[in-house]
Structure formats: C-alpha cells, structure tokens
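Objective 1.3, modelling of assemblies. Example input:
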Amino acid sequence: MRVYLAGPDVFLPDAADRAAALKAICARHGLLGVSPLDPLPEAPQAWQALPLSQRIARANEAHIRTADAVIANLTPFRGPSADAGTVFEVGFARALERPVFGWTNDAADFFTRSRRFVGTVTADATGAWRDRDGMLLESFGLQDNLMIDAAILASGGALVVVDVPSAARWTDLDAFERCVVAAAGLAG
Amino acid sequence: MRVYLAGPDVFLPDAADRAAALKAICARHGLLGVSPLDPLPEAPQAWQALPLSQRIARANEAHIRTADAVIANLTPFRGPSADAGTVFEVGFARALERPVFGWTNDAADFFTRSRRFVGTVTADATGAWRDRDGMLLESFGLQDNLMIDAAILASGGALVVVDVPSAARWTDLDAFERCVVAAAGLAG
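Predicted structure (tokens):
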C-alpha cells in the first residue's frame, strides 16, 4: 500500500532525514511511504522546460494519483490552519476518493486557534463570533476548516490529535505513527 | 457553464448579498455562478443525520463535482496563505481536472507575505530563507504555496492579482470580474 506523506515537513532544515524517518515508520507497519521529495519515476520529458515550482507541483500531483492513501501533517503552520500546500493535497486526494489520514501536534481546536490569531472577537446578533473585519470564525469544535475535517471523516481515514509541548511540535511523531497504524488497518 | 465560487466570502457579515453580487457578475458574462451557500438540489436523505459541518462540506464537494470550473478568492486570510477551505477546494477541483481561476486583492508575493508574518528570517548555507524554527520560506515569486499557483496554471485557468487598499480588500470585485471574463472565454 503506497501512502503519500503530505505536510510542511519538507520545509524542515533536516527535510531529507525527516522523510527517511517517516518512511521507516511506514515500512515498520508494512506501508510504502512516498515523500514529496521523491523524484517521480518517468517524469514526462516536457516537464524539463517548466520552472522548478511547477515541476515539483506536477510530481506531487502524480505521487498522489498513484498513492492508495494520504497521511497529512495538519499541525498549524504560519496561522491557525495547516500548511496551504498540505491542505491543497488533502483536497486533491479527497476528490480522487482516497482515504485521507490527518495528524496534528496541536490539540487546540480551530476556533480557539483562530480566536487567538485574530485577537479581538465579537458575537453578532445570532451569537456567531466575528473578527474586526466582521469575518466569521468557524466554531464547530473541529481541528481546522470544516472542509478538511469532514473530508477526512468521509474518506474513511482518521484524524489523530495529540497535545505535545510546542518545542516538540515539529519532532514528535506519535500522532503520525498512529495514522500509519490506522492506514495499515485499511490495507487489511 | 457552471462556475463554483470558492472563497472566504462566505464568512463576510453580508455573505448572502456578496454571493448575489458574485452571481450577478457571472450572469452578466453568461456564466451560472454557484455559491457554497446554495442548497444542494436532491441532497441524499442520509445526510440529514450528519452534523451541519459535514452537510456543508458534502454539499460543497458535490457543487464542485457538478461545476465546469472554479473561481477562487485567494486573498490572504488569517495568515500568509488563502483561506484553508478555499485551498482545499482548489485542490479538489484540480484533481477533477477542472479549470481553476484564482484572484487576490493582495499583490505582495507569498515570500514577502510569509516573511512579514514570521518576522525574523535568516539565510541558510544554500541561501534559502528560514524562520525561527528553521522552516523554509518558499521564494519562487509566486502568489501562494507552489501547489496552488502551479495548479491554476496547469489547469488552463488564470491567476488575477490586483493591489487594492486594505480597506477595500473584502469589497473590491475587479479581479473577480476579470476571472469571470477569462472563464467565459473558455466557454467559447
């Protein structure tokens, strides 16, 4: 079972080591982890004319198309939500009807994180919370924007939430491993 | 031609009026705009047992599946990137090979916005920029995470970037209308 490993892990200083660590955990549970850093076998010749950013994007899309499932690191990244590239890939995988597993090392819910981010909130006439621009804050008790949580649930995947000290936010792989175990369960 | 109108516009205080305004612009150019706020005709009976957040998510996914294209408001939302729900939907549409049009009222590129967000950056040995956690900042000169920009380009859509005063960030619809015109061009 091929599992695409989405996440801002590719931005870590030791990104190659991190990819190897994630793959080793996958292998321990009988899965083949595919990293966004992996070169695409048989990338079309025509791609060589494309800028690097487009080659990376097309390779990642191709990796997801050939994966059986996606495990996404949804730990909040530069704002209340997960990394944008990761969220894109969760949506991409969901449209392809792949099981999507999400993990996050931040146990605060999306409303709590959003409120912390925007600072001041006020309740409107319906009791909904709004920021200074009048923009609504989602308050469904979910981990991120409802499209993400709901997609994971509907896809047959799982969302694993753990609370780790902020210093270990980008190193603790317990939640990741729990996703791997869950995905391996699907492989039956 | 049915066009799904993705964006954090649904969080505006006047979200219903905003949806009507976007649809009116679509109609003027011969397109049928579909809002995330639109009820889904013939939603499965089984959905009634689901929590509201999941009903909304499934309806939006169904709207995108029945749309011919997506126009996404990528104006940065609570962080350097676009709204997470919108980004999810861009990925979803891309996997379905729909043309995706993006618009943003913030002309600063992703690197500039990310650097402003993280505050302090330092160059590593390769000259790449990293934040306090050592996490890389993308510096491709794109408008958002490379998955988003590249998907729009590869999809046959277009990315329209305008620089509007911050007070008009959630009201100016010039970039949106330019996307509508471009999408209408595809409809031939």
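Chain A has a mean pLDDT of 97.
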